[in-house]
Amino acid sequence: MILPHGHDLDARTRRLLRALISQYLVDGEPVGSRTLARSSGLDVSPATIRNIMADLEDAGLVASPHTSSGRVPTPRGLRLFVDSLIELQPLPRAELARLQSELPPGPATTRDLLGNASTLLSAMTRFAGVVTVPRQADFPLRHIDFVALPEARVLVILVFTDNQVQNRIVQLARPLATSELEQAANYLNSQFAGLRVDDIRAHLLAEVRETGSELNRLLASTMELATASFAPQPSDADMLVSGQTNLMACAELADLQRLRDLFDAFQQKNELLQLMEVCAKAPGVRLFIGEESGFAALDGCSVVTASYGAQGRMLGAVGVIGPTRMAYERVIPVVQATAGLLSDALNRVAVTL
Fold first, then answer.
1. In 3-state terms, what secondary structure has residue 192?
2. Cα 9 from Cα 27, distance rounded (Å)
3. pLDDT, the chain, mean
4. Could you check whether 11-85 and 137-229 share the same CATH topology?
5. pLDDT for res 340
6. CB-count exposure of residue 11 (10 Å: 0-12, 13-18, 19+)
7. Tell me: domain 11-85, CATH 1.10.10.10, correct?
8. Which of 22, 77, 180, 332 has the fewest C-beta atoms under 10 angstroms from its C-beta?
9. What is the DSSP string of 252-277?
10. pLDDT tens sequence across 286-319
């Protein structure tokens, strides 16, 4: 019996399977025995190759389309290829230089940087580029300001270390004077700048419970404002997608219903975001081939992802979505390098992460 990971494949069978999959990934056509004999470089007869192919077909690693005597790899065969037969090489220097030049750190927000990464992945692979956007609460607070609004409301302006600005409107029991708002902002900036929102919330909770704490003593009238400003918010997790239309040119995804389901998944984002968030929690490259993703819309696709972060903290994942027939030996290094450069850029623009 041939195991899924292929450890019991002899050298000749492994070489033939590698040659078959490599040929299929190039031209997308079923590979016949005579073609395989030439491309593998083995001195074996077509009859011997047919016998080996029959064994591989019995093991579920290749399949024979009804219209051809040749064979194509199954998702299980592609998985074995990626896990144990592929020979990955570092990204060529020219492509790495392109990534470095187009993902520079600067005054732009993290979202802008992530959007560039998504677009660049799509352009370099000709598939769909995807990247998850971290929750804003994952970034430390740089500054907070308050602006009085009518009817005892206050506009809260939160500026984070990734240059992103978030506005919230809170309703208070009574209006606060401008001096009280300034006092609250000064205190919060002096005490909590550089902390993440979840940490600030925990500190405020401790202050509330501590009788005679500095916050209670100095800002008793604005404690309501402070706690409301950092109250839990609905999840702002998001995902940026670029180059979806590239997939329309992939023959393997030409079925209209399949494309419609796939584009619906891009539009709704929920399922894709769940998958990407799982990938973000694990370091390194993750790869899902066909139904491995668990989402029907991706059954005919492969998803290649890599996590990114800053200061040892995982923040999200970048990736590529394309047909199962893709040049894995090229796509994987592109995704891996993009994640690494994105992490480097975030470390430089947000050193307090």
1. helix
2. 25
3. 85
4. no
5. 92
6. exposed
7. yes
8. 180
9. GG--HHHHHHHHHHHHH-HHHHHHHH
10. 999 999 998 988 988 999 999 998 877 888 999 9
Please check the confidence at residue 32 and state whether its pLDDT lies above 60: yes
Tell me how many degrees the CA angle 276-281-286 measures, rounded to the nearest 5: 60
Which residue is associated with the tokens 């790899």? 73
Task: Place domain 93-134+237-349 in its CATH homologous superfamily.
Answer: GAF domain (3.30.450.40)
- Output the pTM of the full model: 0.81
Which H or E run contains 154?
A: strand 153-160
Judge contact between 198 and 137, C-beta under 8 A: yes
Q: Is 2 in contact with 61 (CB distance < 8 Å)?
A: yes
Residue range 177-183: mean pLDDT, rounded: 89
User: DSSP state, 5?
Assistant: T
Domain ranges of the chain: 11-85, 93-134+237-349, 137-229
- For 283-300, letters b (16+ CB in 10 Å) and e give eebbbbbbebbebebbbb
Write the CB contacts of 160 (distance below 8 Å, at least 6 apart in sequence). 136, 139, 140, 141, 142, 166
pLDDT band at 127 (very low <50, low <70, confident <90, very high): very high
pLDDT at residue 212 above 60? no
Asked if 302 and 323 touch (Cβ cutoff 8 Å), the reply is yes
Give the pLDDT confidence of 143-177 residue by residue, as tens digits: 999 999 999 899 999 998 888 888 999 998 888 88
User: Which CATH number among 3.40.50.1000, 3.40.50.10540, 3.40.250.10, 3.30.390.60 corresponds to the domain 137-229?
Assistant: 3.30.390.60
